[in-house]
Amino acid sequence: MRNYINILWGLGAVLAIAVTLTAAAAPGCSSCVGGGSGGTWSSGIAFIGASAEASTRMDKGSSTSAAGSPEQIPPSSMITARALYEDQLGDKRWAMAYVGVPGDDSYIEGSIHLPLDQVFNAEGSLKSPEEIAAIFGAAGISEDDPLVIYGDNFVNGYDTFAFWVMKYLGHQDVRLLEGTRGGREAAGLKFVENPAPRAAETYNPDPNLDLLASADDLADLQLVDPRTAAEYNAGHLEGAINIDYTRVMGSSGLATSQALAQAFRGLDKDERVVVYSSKGGLASIVWYALAAQGFDASLLVLG
Fold it and tell me: Phi and psi for 257 in degrees, rounded to 5?
């Protein structure tokens, strides 16, 4: 198995499976895996499968803990707004891709819109690497482009899931943009209404299959359910432990190293971890934090 650096920068293929919930799950429960709003793309909350209450609680907790808390230490897969701005003043090395739900002036000037909603099949499973590569190539990205991914904020799951998908394709040079809209504007980045046109490219994927989670070996792995405690208690995969995604993220990136260590204290770092959720967005938040902390982590996408 690859070491931490390759785990963070590499991505295993996904497995879309139908699952049976534990006896605690009520039939038709809207908060169970795969139920409720987790399959829609109308908002960040819907996509990651989170409740409005959970996202509100996370935002409040992030803003409260920001003052007087230890400085957050971003992993090497992040770029600051100031660094991106300075790059634009120079050679403009980075291609930029917005992955949220567009609103007024959503796009940093020069960005494309990466159609993340198109990576799923009609029944909710993830498309093949070749199919996703064709979608992203049509949007103007090739496998050789140094790429910066950003959404409207860092806590809605779009950013981390897009990062995960790029690693699934084998994309080597991809970063997440740190910070919030206000901080990005303060750094000098200009926001505009429409994405920039970019010529179509041929994207040649080189999928990393090292982190593949299969139905056959799930029983031997550490399973993590990233939803709220209430949602977890309503129904979850047998053997899964609950690590609420709100515990690992701040308003502008990962939580502090101390907070992450506390959140992951129940996990064995020498054993493989699989994080699962409907559509993968919610799971990708915890997956990203685990990888940044040196865990051998992979993602399980439930349709």
Answer: -60, -35
Measured torsion, CA atoms of residues 146, 152, 154, 156, in degrees rounded to the nearest 10: -120
* CATH number at 78-192: 3.40.250.10
Tell me: the pLDDT tens digits for 96-153? 999 988 888 899 999 999 999 899 888 888 889 999 999 999 999 999 999 999 998 7
Phi, psi (deg, nearest 5) at residue 10: -110, 160
Alpha helices in 125-279 (DSSP H): 129-139, 158-169, 181-186, 229-234, 257-263
pTM greater than 0.85? no
Pairing of strands 191-192, 107-108: antiparallel
Q: In this structure, which CATH number among 3.30.70.270, 3.10.20.600, 3.40.250.10, 3.30.450.20 belongs to the domain 4-54+210-302?
A: 3.40.250.10
